[in-house]
Specification:
mainly beta, 7-stranded mixed β-sheet, 4-stranded antiparallel β-sheet, 117 residues, 11 strands
């Protein structure tokens, strides 16, 4: 049974930092692309950052230079370090795991990040 469990969300002021984490189980973690998506009320879910099984990363333009995705394969963990947070970063952040880019993959339950101005 595949499980992705996010943690680390919360309330932070504009300009602050936060790190969200995702613990994966039930998959061969090192073989999976891992990603963070987010969805704000009334908006579509969007890709924030992705890291390949080889460690290559890509980011949404809106977060480049501010957010960093990383993974720890022995611990089956993926992280998203978020710096210089803005009110528009307020969303539910979801962890995603997929074997191939074209797969839907698996989703976590999400963690709320709220940036107050």
């Amino acid at each position: 049974q595949v499980q992705l469990v996010e943690s680390g969300g919360g309330l932070v002021q504009v300009g602050g930092s936060l790190r969200v984490s995702c613990a994966a189980s039930g998959i061969i973690f090192s073989e999976y692309y891992m990603a963070w998506y987010r969805q704000a009320p009334g908006k579509q879910r969007e890709l924030v950052a992705r890291i390949s099984n080889g460690g290559s990363t890509n980011y949404a333009d809106s977060v480049k230079g501010r957010f960093t995705i990383s993974r720890d394969n022995p611990k089956n963990m993926v992280y998203l370090q978020m710096n210089s947070l803005k009110p528009e970063d307020t969303s539910i952040y979801y962890c995603n795991a997929r074997r191939r880019i074209i797969d839907m993959g698996y989703w976590g339950q999400g963690t709320q990040v709220t940036v107050s101005s």
